[in-house]
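Contributing: when you submit paired examples, paste them exactly as shown. First protein:
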Amino acid sequence: MSVLIKNEWLKLIKKKSSWIMWLILVAMTFGITLLVRSTTKSHNGEIMMKANDLFASLTEMTSFLNLFVVIVAASIVSEEFSRGTIKFLLIRPFSRSQILFSKFVVCLIYSVIGTVILYISSLVSANLLLNSQSPFDVVNGYHGWNALTVAGAHAGANLLLLLLYSTITLFISAAIRSQSLAVGVGLGVLFGSSIINSFLNVVIPKHQWLKWNPFNMLNIKNTIMENTGAENSYPAYLNFWQMAGGILVYSLIIYLVMQLLFKKRDVSLS
């Protein structure tokens, strides 16, 4: 199994696009920080923004990381069908479940490395371009946590989201074989969740069970900064661990259905 995962990883990492997306992530992190620097300068040229204030939120760049992971997850299966290599893959001494699992694991590895890259580039860019601070200083509004911990909490919460995004996108890619549709659905979940949540918030007060819908789980990063009594101010409130559990359950269900569909998939027409 490890051989299969290694092979899938090598196939992914040999693509120029895999490296380009990481480089774009770093370049955009520095670009956004530079933009923040220019917009927070006072009349006498003093930079008003402190490094930890931006680093703690990972420079608000997690959406771009999520976008790149969705693209990888959409292509990792659908390309096998579009290029006709799926038949050669299936004649190898591995089951379909193992093949799909290896691609799933590779997507998660790509997500983890991308998160580490974003974490480090946010820390470096913020301290180079803004008012530098020790990352061990406490960040206001985050339970007395230091900047390293707050940024780590955001990174961890976003990794849970990447697990769900990857699973959904792989499911579409494996079931329909369409890379463009898989990317479209992934982007729809990624950027359309706030719109859907705004509609659901209207009906959730009357139907409390709706707060367990998967789109509400996508608000997990908001729970990192929550204050005491937040459960009384938000009708769709779920705490961090409830949302984390919900994301894991939804990801597991989608993954199992994806495996079932992939096992029954007829590749003769590929």
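Second protein:
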Amino acid sequence: MKQQRAHAVCGGLVIACVLAILSLILVDAGGQTTPALFWHILLNLQLPLICTAVLVGAALAVSSASLQVVLNNPLADPGIIGISSGASLVAAIMLLVMPAHYSTGSLAVLPAACFGGALLSTWLIYLLARRLRGATTAVILAGIAISTLSSALMAWLFVFADAQAMRNLTFWLMGSLYQTNWSILAVAGPIMLFTLIRLCRLAPRLNWLYGGSRLTAAAGVSPARLNKQVLIISALGVGAAVSVAGSIAFVGLLVPHFMRLLLGYDNRRLLPACALAGALVLLLVAVINEYSHQIALPVSMITATVGGPLLLWALYRGQWKLA
């Protein structure tokens, strides 16, 4: 029965993703666009946009779902444990200290720098977690400390920023699916794909963590080694996602929660469903942006507008739990 429900949910998500992708491909087909211009837009704008939405949404949702199991905390979102803040701080430095890289169109420099910032924050979190012997609460506290420090440094940078730099930085920090191209995806895309495949392959081992460290060890799985693997792989995927799309709120927090309500806690079914649902969420955000034709809305503004009320509703109903 659970298997049939999982197949039905995943089938519905696949159909919804396909429809969203078709709507993005055909957004300019009904106008006065010539065939040559249509294919140029499709190959150089629409397909990179679709790949970015699918990969970033899936990577954020699957990484967050895995982190929530390892840390035994439903609030284990990349923004909370400090991975996103490292990339955001580097973005602030690039936009405010070296604005020439942004204004002259050197967009590849900024995502590459953000990716480095995400990896640096992940490395700091890993070192602190290892020194504190991998305690799950210590990892979250270390992430909060890094996020707070990054926010403070960004506030100092804002003091010296001009109006244009502040507007660019605000848009980047709220997320965008339009900051990438094929060159950037050629680097970040394989990293996000590796994250998805590797975490889904670890799903059977993640199930043992629900029973605690002793039960996991009795099953022949080292809890410490598994925690370290998931932490590093998830951080790698989230760092790549933030480097191409900026900081995106609520996708990593809400998608795993609502998939658990539909499918339960078996990670063998949960992680693939989270990948599809995360991809669908960002595809729908892209559809809203493409058909508005007025302004490119920041991704986090849309996801937070929808996700905030859903989070309050889940808390009010007392449905927020991990196991």
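If you have annotations for the second protein, write them as plain sentences, like these:
Residues 35-70 form the longest helix (36 residues).
The mean pLDDT is 80.
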